[in-house]
Amino acid sequence: MPIYEYRCESCSGKFEVLTRFAERDATQVCPSCESIKTKVLISSFAFAGTGGSSEAPDFGSAEGGGGGCCGGSCGSCGSSPN
Predict the structure, then answer these.
(1) Rounded mean pLDDT of 36-58?
(2) What's the DSSP call for residue 57?
(3) Are the beta carbons of 62 and 41 closer than 8 angstroms?
């Protein structure tokens, strides 16, 4: 189940609710002021990676050391000519 973020129209507070997608637009009660004037917010997601680089890893490069090929062009995927 995804976590949705809501904003209260009465107190401007933000809170999160773990609920099904089909129920995300249902009225939620604000935990701060108990108002039902709440709206679901559009949230972005975070990508948690390792290392200090801001670039995404290149899994297709030979420098990665362990990814393998995609498509059999390296000859080690069982697609040898023999």
Answers:
(1) 73
(2) P
(3) no
The whole-angstrom separation of Cα 24 and Cα 12 is 19
- Give the predicted TM-score (pTM) of the model: 0.52
* Residue 13 backbone zone (phi > 0: left; psi -120 to 50: alpha; other: beta): beta
DSSP label at residue 62: G
Joined tokens for residue 47? 């990508």
pLDDT in tens, 10-19: 999 999 999 9
What single string gives the DSSP state of each residue in 3-34?
Answer: EEEEEETTT--EEEEE--GGGTTS----TTT-
